[in-house]
Design brief:
44% helix, 8 strands, alpha+beta, four-stranded antiparallel sheet, elongated, two-stranded antiparallel sheet
Length: 206
């Protein structure tokens, strides 16, 4: 005699899977309906750029939920339960992306690009010269541009009086791996100096 409960174990197992796609589609449709009713622009891309960079109810609420506790002019900000839960979920997503990265293929660069929450593309910007001095050393990252495109980047660490160059490298594009893989990168600079230089270098990420 057939046992429908046992015979359909595969069916029940399939039903137990979480349907993330349907949940996302429902949330996206609600979001899409909201922004279509609030913005008189022709494309989704234009509207999303407005939402990202111009104050609006969604952006304002998100920024409030992500704001750290502390003084906010004359009032004290304390995150509510929704804010705490959102931060917790973002932290979990960050942790999982670091341990199990998504690496889609970038056709323009013919390579795989790791997706993380520490390097998120918002919009293209025009890099500017970065320079700082600390503990007797001057750190410089100098991009040479053609229009808004990088043609050459010079990265230099030298004595503040210019008497000695500790590190010098020129590259044709922004490429942190190329910079850190230079033979004298780790030998010429100590960990603190490397951290300071990389922080400055990342400021020109286009």
């Amino acid at each position: 005699m057939a046992n429908n409960y046992v015979d359909n174990k595969t069916y029940w197992d399939d039903l137990s899977d979480l349907d993330y796609i349907s949940a996302f589609v429902k949330a996206w449709l609600a979001f899409n309906a909201w922004y279509r009713s609030h913005y008189n622009l022709s494309t989704d891309r234009e509207i999303l750029d407005q939402i990202k960079f111009v104050p609006n109810p969604i952006k304002n609420r998100a920024e409030t939920m992500l704001k750290t506790s502390g003084s906010d002019k004359q009032k004290r900000f304390k995150p509510d339960q929704d804010a705490l839960e959102l931060r917790s979920e973002i932290a979990l997503l960050h942790d999982r992306l670091e341990k199990h990265p998504l690496t889609p293929f970038d056709k323009k660069r013919s390579t795989y690009k790791k997706i993380t929450m520490t390097n998120v593309f918002l919009k293209r910007r025009t890099p500017a010269v970065q320079s700082t001095s600390y503990s007797g050393l001057t750190y410089e990252v100098i991009p040479i541009l053609s229009g808004t495109q990088i043609q050459r980047i010079t990265v230099k660490v030298s004595r503040a009086n210019g008497s000695q160059v500790r590190f010098l490298h020129t590259q044709t594009k922004f490429d942190e791996n190329d910079l850190t893989s230079q033979p004298n990168f780790a030998t010429s600079l100590n960990p603190n100096q490397i951290g300071r230089l990389l922080a400055l270098y990342r400021e020109i990420n286009p």
